[in-house]
């Protein structure tokens, strides 16, 4: 029976091309994600294994910290660790992220998404995660070293002057050495600038401190014993790990890092395969219907039900196998292209040969074949139920189940979706959004179940404006004739349009909410100074800004991460007077005077999450320990202050960095904002080329840019799902032409010309397209509106439905529907009338 199924595929190759393409696209996402992440992770893990010290000591920070503001400790620990039995040498290390390296033209070097790191040249070069390639080690504030990859891309040579912007200040120093890229840790392969130890501490931290200590052991010393002795000697203030533990932790971090990237691709692979599943279901349902007499004949000559079912499933196995194979090859090609791109850009990320593991290969085939067989199974079961006597009749029909059970299940799921929506909107916040999302998924499945019932009525209503001419009426009735087929084809497009329309509404609402929140929050600060490079910038920027003529006052804002219980929070330090003008604030309880008393101010939504009220103490964990604070006031939702707010002196005691994240600049009366802005830029541009000085309107526009970027990226990937949905329409129409060959011949015989026949098929395509677009639009807009209602207190205060964009989406859907009918209509128009009438 497998041979019979294979021959059927070979005999009708064209009808299965689109099914195979749908599987290929889905598997390509999955295969590419797994190959790329496996390859890069494997290369980095190898470097971890060969470049890790015997024992590594790091500060035991109470919270997870980034590389830009890591926890530190003092030099006295080095001598205490060196005195531990079994230790041959202890070398302090310093590495901090978010350092800007400027090119000879004064512009920041393009890092292609990588973080630039600053490091201290170690006392023992053998303990460094990088090696000297050329020149001599830097010494003093006027010298530095660069990794050879960055120096080569920038055109720097030993002896050149290099400008660097560190977290504390901008410096110009002489390049005295080039190094290999760091081979281990977070800085593996990234741009790296190195200074001598004292200079590195001053420029990277603004204070004495080290981020780790690498320990070399004496011969025959047991790493586990020595690490335990170090931990016992120093106490809980440090984290002591052997080389094996560092390697294991590093591999875990890499798996998490690249696992997130792979998860995104796998999500889109799932979407592509889910949408493609509708195409496969439709194809096999139509193919079985067309071959019903052939299958009944097989039953008549002795084939059992199981053999007929297995024949159809064999066809799906062939399609799944071919699709999975092509998808795997495309995925490997995509992974190779990404790696080649990194090499072309001269980014020295550790690379290895492509890791096409047995797990990846098996997963691709399981996904491809599994999805195809699962989609074809219903049609295969119906084919097996054909009675042998059907071969003797002309009107052979594949038996179909009653829609009653399907309608009951769909109605129940729709009721559950309404319940989820109601509870979610009432709950609000993140829990409410999760419930609404769950309700939306349930609603989608419910509509898929109910679609065969509602499709004929919806199609009739949507096609009413197109008139009652014969081609229009016939095209509409063709769409109504088989509601299961029409609904399955439209459902694929419904899901894609629903996702896009939902994103459009949420994106528009986010941008409108940003505009409103900034208008409401920004008070007397006419100019805002931010950094488009690193998150923070040195305090020198604020000092120089305050000296510009026309500047009345400069208010500083600093930020760091923290934890309250198990909740991650942002901690914001503000200058005196920031809440009295530059930022417009509304207090639900308490006042800004709480900052002078060393107390904290919390926004209402965060206070609600943490279950805190005015006067209640709480413990805040930061990089330098746990601190007890008291709630002094509660703020109304405020985009500019969506964090735990403290004064700058209190912020310093919490371990915050002395670098600023934002400056509010008030212009003195009688001065033009534009002129003062230009003067500030002239003062800062040379040493800080990535500093941005904007007025309130420009600042709001920049705040909207990330939303646009996300919408564009996600929209591009969702376009793949729409492509598959349109392939489904093409497939349905093409197979419909084959199925209705005799009918088409009769229509031509009684006077329908070729243009009318093409118009009939275009109308059928438009009817299916409009059905999917209408249902998708309803689901997407409803979902987005419900999410906005739930997130009113979490920054999504304005609901904005972009009617014009949604109308354009529907118009484009109609255009695509017309294009989808081009090829099937040409096939139908080329049919010979007499042969078509004679066909069975």
From TrEMBL:
<feature type="domain" description="ABC3 transporter permease C-terminal">
    <location>
        <begin position="716"/>
        <end position="832"/>
    </location>
</feature>
<keyword id="KW-1133">Transmembrane helix</keyword>
<feature type="transmembrane region" description="Helical">
    <location>
        <begin position="486"/>
        <end position="508"/>
    </location>
</feature>
<dbReference type="InterPro" id="IPR003838">
    <property type="entry name" value="ABC3_permease_C"/>
</dbReference>
<feature type="transmembrane region" description="Helical">
    <location>
        <begin position="434"/>
        <end position="459"/>
    </location>
</feature>
<feature type="transmembrane region" description="Helical">
    <location>
        <begin position="710"/>
        <end position="738"/>
    </location>
</feature>
<keyword id="KW-0812">Transmembrane</keyword>
<dbReference type="InterPro" id="IPR025857">
    <property type="entry name" value="MacB_PCD"/>
</dbReference>
<feature type="transmembrane region" description="Helical">
    <location>
        <begin position="264"/>
        <end position="289"/>
    </location>
</feature>
<comment type="similarity">
    <text>Belongs to the ABC-4 integral membrane protein family.</text>
</comment>
<dbReference type="InterPro" id="IPR050250">
    <property type="entry name" value="Macrolide_Exporter_MacB"/>
</dbReference>
<feature type="transmembrane region" description="Helical">
    <location>
        <begin position="403"/>
        <end position="428"/>
    </location>
</feature>
<keyword id="KW-0472">Membrane</keyword>
<feature type="domain" description="ABC3 transporter permease C-terminal">
    <location>
        <begin position="267"/>
        <end position="388"/>
    </location>
</feature>
<feature type="domain" description="MacB-like periplasmic core">
    <location>
        <begin position="487"/>
        <end position="680"/>
    </location>
</feature>
<dbReference type="Pfam" id="PF12704">
    <property type="entry name" value="MacB_PCD"/>
</dbReference>
<feature type="domain" description="MacB-like periplasmic core">
    <location>
        <begin position="17"/>
        <end position="231"/>
    </location>
</feature>
<feature type="transmembrane region" description="Helical">
    <location>
        <begin position="317"/>
        <end position="340"/>
    </location>
</feature>
<dbReference type="Pfam" id="PF02687">
    <property type="entry name" value="FtsX"/>
</dbReference>
<protein>
    <submittedName>
        <fullName>FtsX-like permease family protein</fullName>
    </submittedName>
</protein>
<feature type="transmembrane region" description="Helical">
    <location>
        <begin position="766"/>
        <end position="791"/>
    </location>
</feature>
<keyword id="KW-1003">Cell membrane</keyword>
<feature type="transmembrane region" description="Helical">
    <location>
        <begin position="360"/>
        <end position="382"/>
    </location>
</feature>
<feature type="transmembrane region" description="Helical">
    <location>
        <begin position="803"/>
        <end position="823"/>
    </location>
</feature>
């Amino acid at each position: 029976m497998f041979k019979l199924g294979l021959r059927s595929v070979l005999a009708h190759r064209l009808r299965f091309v689109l099914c195979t393409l749908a599987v290929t696209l889905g598997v390509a996402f999955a295969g590419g994600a797994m190959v790329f992440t496996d390859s890069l992770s494997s290369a980095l893990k190898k470097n971890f294994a060969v470049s890790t010290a015997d024992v590594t000591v790091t500060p035991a920070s109470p919270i997870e910290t980034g590389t830009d503001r890591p926890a530190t400790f003092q030099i006295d620990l080095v001598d205490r660790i060196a005195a531990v039995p079994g230790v041959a040498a202890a070398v302090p290390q310093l590495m901090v992220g978010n350092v800007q390296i400027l090119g000879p033209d004064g512009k920041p070097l393009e890092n292609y998404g990588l973080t630039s790191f600053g490091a201290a040249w170690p006392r023992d070069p053998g303990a460094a995660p990088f090696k000297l390639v050329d020149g001599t080690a830097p010494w003093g504030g006027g010298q530095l070293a660069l990794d050879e990859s960055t120096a080569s891309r920038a055109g720097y040579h030993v002896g050149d002057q290099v400008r660097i912007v560190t977290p504390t200040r901008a410096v110009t120093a002489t390049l005295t050495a080039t190094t290999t890229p760091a081979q281990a840790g977070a800085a593996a392969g990234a741009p790296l600038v190195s200074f001598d130890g004292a200079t590195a501490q001053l420029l990277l931290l603004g204070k004495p401190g080290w981020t780790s200590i690498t320990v070399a052991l004496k011969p025959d010393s047991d790493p586990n014993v020595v690490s335990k002795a170090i931990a016992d000697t120093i106490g809980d203030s440090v984290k002591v790990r052997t080389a094996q533990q560092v390697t294991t932790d590093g591999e875990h971090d890499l798996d998490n890092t690249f696992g997130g990237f792979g998860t995104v691709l796998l999500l889109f692979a799932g979407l592509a395969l889910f949408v493609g599943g509708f195409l496969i279901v439709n194809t096999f349902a139509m193919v079985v219907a067309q071959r019903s007499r052939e299958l009944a004949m097989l039953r008549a000559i002795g084939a059992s039900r199981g053999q007929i079912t297995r024949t159809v499933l064999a066809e799906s196995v062939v399609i799944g196998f071919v699709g999975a194979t092509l998808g795997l090859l495309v995925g490997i090609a995509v992974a190779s292209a990404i790696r080649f791109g990194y090499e072309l850009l001269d980014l020295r990320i550790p690379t290895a040969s492509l890791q096409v593991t047995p797990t990846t290969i098996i997963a691709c085939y399981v996904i491809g074949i599994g999805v195809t067989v699962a989609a074809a199974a219903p049609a295969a079961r119906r084919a097996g139920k054909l009675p042998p006597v059907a071969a003797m009749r002309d009107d052979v029909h594949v038996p179909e189940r009653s829609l009653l059970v399907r309608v009951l299940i769909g109605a129940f799921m729709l009721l559950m979706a309404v319940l989820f929506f109601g509870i979610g909107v009432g709950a609000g916040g993140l829990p409410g959004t999760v419930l609404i999302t769950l309700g939306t998924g349930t609603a989608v499945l419910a509509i898929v179940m109910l679609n065969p019932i509602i499709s004929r009525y919806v199609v009739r209503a949507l096609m009413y404006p197109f008139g009652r001419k014969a081609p229009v009426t016939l095209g509409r009735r063709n769409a109504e004739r088989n509601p299961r087929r029409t609904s399955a084809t439209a459902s694929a497009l419904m899901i894609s349009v629903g996702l896009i329309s939902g994103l459009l509404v949420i994106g528009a609402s986010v941008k409108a909410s940003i505009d409103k929140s900034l208008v409401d929050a920004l008070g007397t600060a006419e100019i805002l100074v931010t950094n488009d490079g690193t998150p923070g910038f040195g305090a020198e920027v604020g000092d120089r800004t305050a000296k510009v003529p026309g500047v009345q006052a400069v208010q500083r804002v600093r930020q760091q991460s923290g934890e309250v219980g198990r909740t991650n929070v942002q901690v914001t330090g503000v200058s005196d007077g920031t809440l009295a003008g530059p930022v417009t604030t509304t207090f639900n309880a308490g006042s800004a005077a709480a900052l002078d008393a060393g107390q904290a101010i919390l926004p209402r939504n965060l206070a609600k999450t943490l279950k805190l009220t005015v006067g209640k103490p709480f413990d805040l964990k930061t990089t330098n320990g746990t601190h007890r604070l008291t709630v002094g006031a509660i703020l109304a939702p405020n985009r500019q202050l969506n964090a735990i707010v403290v004064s700058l002196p209190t912020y310093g005691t919490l371990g915050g960095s002395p670098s600023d994240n934002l400056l509010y600049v008030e212009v003195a009366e009688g001065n033009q904002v534009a002129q003062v802005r230009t003067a500030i830029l002239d003062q800062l541009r040379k040493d800080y080329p990535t500093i941005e000085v904007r007025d309130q309107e420009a600042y709001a526009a920049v705040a909207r840019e990330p939303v646009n970027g996300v919408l564009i990226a996600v929209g591009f990937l969702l376009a793949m799902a729409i492509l598959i949905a349109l392939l489904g329409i093409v497939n349905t129409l093409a197979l419909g032409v084959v199925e209705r060959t005799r009918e088409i011949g009769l229509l031509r015989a009684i006077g329908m010309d070729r243009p009318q026949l093409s118009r009939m098929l275009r109308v059928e395509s438009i009817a299916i397209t409009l059905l999917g677009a209408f249902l998708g639009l309803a689901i997407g807009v409803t979902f987005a509106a419900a999410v906005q209602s739930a997130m009113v207190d979490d920054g999504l205060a304005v609901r904005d439905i972009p009617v014009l964009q949604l109308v354009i989406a529907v118009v484009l859907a109609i255009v695509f529907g017309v294009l989808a009918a081009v090829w099937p209509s040409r096939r139908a128009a080329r049919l010979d009338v007499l042969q078509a009438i004679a066909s069975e």
